[in-house]
Amino acid sequence: MVEQLVKKLNDTKQLNNTYIFYTSDNGYHTGQFSLPIGGRQLYEFDIRIPLMVRGPGIAPKQIVKDAYNNTYACVRTLVGHNLQYCEFADNESFVEVYNLTSDASQLENIVKKVDPALLQAMNQQLIKLQSCA
Q1: 3-state DSSP call for residue 128?
Q2: How confident is the model at residue 3 (pLDDT cuts 50, 70, 90)?
Q3: What is the 3 state secondary structure string of 29-59?
Q4: 119: Cβ–Cβ under 8 A, 6 or more apart, which residues?
């Protein structure tokens, strides 16, 4: 299937203007190694999935070994507000805040509209919860 797609893009002279992303699911193990059913364990076979990208500006056979995964932690407040506060564990210290009453689909990050004191309180609550793990 991938080969046919690349050939079609090449034949139509679109290959050099197109990004192709190839990835795979890590699968759904069904109790192997006495682990719980699912694919959400912190072992190599659950966290390492292939991702290959080809397109303009990407050097052939380039390998990136230090990519950050999309690991995040969230805390939700229900008293006074219905907010979800998330911090991403990457090198950018990215924070998202969503009003789950007016934006249940989490389409608008309102972090810049929220009172900084509330952000600080949610950050401290998240730190306390993380220290329990």
Answers
A1: helix
A2: very high
A3: ECCHHHCCCECCCCCHHHHCCCEEEECCCCC
A4: 85, 95, 97, 111
Over residues 99-116, the pLDDT tens digits come to 999 998 888 999 999 999
How far, in whole angstroms, is CA 15 from its chain's centroid? 28
Average pLDDT score over residue span 112-124: 92
The count of other CB atoms within 10 Å of the CB of residue 15 is 17
Token pair belonging to 41: 């364990």
Number of H helices, E strands in the chain: 3, 5
Residue in 96, 98, 104, 100 with CA at minimum distance from that of residue 70: 96
Task: Give the contacts of 106 (CB within 8 A, at least 6 positions apart).
Answer: 84, 96, 98, 100
